[in-house]
Design a protein that fits this description.
Layout: H1 15-18, H2 26-50, E1 66-74, E2 103-113, E3 120-122, E4 134-136, H3 142-175
Antiparallel strand pairs: 1-2, 3-4
Length: 176
């Protein structure tokens, strides 16, 4: 089933996809990609909570819970894996491959609908009740959504802390 378009804030731009950046900026790029993904998760959870009682949508049934699917992003042109360990036998004067070359943070792959069915509640006075008087409610459990929201917020804060630490390191490097 196709998911109707959601009106959400645009994702933060990810400079890693446009052009290669110097490795010194990699921690900030990775942290900002994590913050973008977590912001999308928080917006999706907020949409789920707002529609927790919606029994009729444009598609004709109750609202279905949406979940953000993320994946690891690999930088363009990066090596596919770590170099073999141990790094013995290297030629003198040749630096070994940087094992962090492939790191590119995370990105949102899709927003998928949860396929589970919502509960049937007996409410014969409800406009969406069937002939037996039952109404199919959305498969959104507000407590689960609040836990997801707290998790996304804490991961966002962790990424923001990493970003700030990387920024401070760069400023101190400029002072040297």
């Amino acid at each position: 089933m196709a998911i109707p378009s959601l009106k959400m804030l645009p994702l933060l731009t990810n400079n890693m996809e446009r052009a290669p950046r110097p490795p010194i900026f990699r921690p900030m790029d990775i942290a900002s990609s994590g913050m973008s993904l977590q912001r999308l998760r928080m917006e999706t959870v907020a949409t789920n909570i707002a529609n927790a009682e919606t029994t009729r949508t444009d598609a004709g049934g109750p609202y279905r819970r949406r979940v953000v699917v993320g994946e690891q992003a690999v930088r363009e042109g990066a090596a596919p894996s770590y170099p073999p360990l141990p790094l013995s036998g290297q030629q003198p004067g040749v630096s070994p491959q940087d094992p962090t070359d492939a790191l590119g943070g995370v990105r949102a792959l899709a927003i998928e609908e949860d396929p589970t069915e919502g509960p049937m509640v007996y409410d014969p006075g409800h406009p969406d009740a069937d002939k037996a008087g039952y109404v199919r409610y959305p498969n959104v459990q507000v407590t689960t959504e609040l836990v997801d929201l707290m998790e996304a917020r804490r991961v966002y804060e962790a990424n923001a802390t990493v970003f700030q630490a990387a920024k401070q390191l760069l400023r101190r490097a400029l002072d040297i």
